[in-house]
What we know:
Strand content: 15-25%
Number of strands: 13
Distance between the termini: 97 Å
Mean pLDDT: 82
Helix content: 40-55%
Amino acid sequence: MNIKKASIIGGLLVLAAVGICVLAAVAGWAISRGTSLKRNEVAVIYVQGVITSGDRPRGAFSSAGQAYSDEIVRFLRQAAKDDKIRAIVLRVDSPGGGVVASDEIYQAMKKVQKPIVISMGSLAASGGYYISCAAQEIVANPNTLTGSIGVITIMPNVQGLLEKLGIRMIVLASGPHKEEGTFRPFTEEDRAIWDALIQETYGNFVQVVVEGRGMDEAKVRELADGRIYTGKQAQALGLVDRLGNIDLAIERAAALGGIEGTPRLHPYRPTPTFFESLMGAVTSRPTTEAVVKLLGLDHPFTMQYLYLGQ
């Protein structure tokens, strides 16, 4: 009788142990499943307008038509740290802008340990294409204008205007090239100095394309004469991966991020000021300030990855 009781008790203990293991496995699966369901977001970060160094100013109407590098880098870092976000879509609709501002965004993208897919809008040229080369994939609309791989600097010379107005500027400088291109003619020596700077910066752009697109340098230099390409042409040349709109970019980002099913979207957008919201000023159309930056009049002699064909 005691032996039977011991056998029954032993059997019950074995069944209980098996039950506990099964329950633990089910609970673990449920927890992991719940966690995976929560980690199904794709961040969407917008790069719209002229790419400009610094952070977005909070004054009325001052932020329209410009993409500020500090703000975009901050969004990238936030998305990189958020465990719910598995991948990032960068929506680029920009003619490019400052060399340093473009590179700041590019370098921040390279540090993100999550898939990044570019969705090109109407225009993703020059600096807009530069930052796109940091992504795992580039999706462009067939009619997107992209490319414009090159460097430009604009030097406003007011000497002729001052002469017509009868104004003579007296400039005291520490060296012969300190005042180059402003109140005196631009000399061949000045041009040689700036040509060397531009070629160095252009070489950096070429290497970004070579690395990002896995292309031969000679081929990139052949394509990188400053011309613009449609999305369809760019795909045929190897400058973009796929043709489509932002929905396809989100789909590709979700796939690269290991998301099953439809991802949740986590948009990162600038917060408009009260006046911008009231007047509807937050658009990709350049304001007066943006045009000044576009033409390089705020910082003369600044090199830019910029497309001027708008």
